[in-house]
Amino acid sequence: MLRDAQDQVTAYATKNKIPLSENAKHFFTLAQYNGGPGAVQVLLNDFKREGTLANDAFLTKKPTNSKKGQVYDNVMQRFQLANALTSEGHFDPDAPSQITSTPITDK
Known about the structure:
The protein has 107 residues and is an all-alpha fold. The protein is built from 3 helices and no strands.
């Protein structure tokens, strides 16, 4: 589910020529999972308009006029916790994923 969310975020950003850092990709993937594609599109467009995507400024400055402020708040909590756990060494961001998937095929 998260991989699909990430793919959708990347596709929307690419289609709309919105450059995303790795932190932004992680944040907006969580936003997609939390609030759905509509919420992500609103947030991306709000941040693009405000100029807060540059240098990931949106991570320190909440959108001022976004209708999706609650999604931002929810995702920010998860994002900050994930970063804290990673910085404490609980996760190795360079390790291969421990989750594997098996494609479903018709037989």
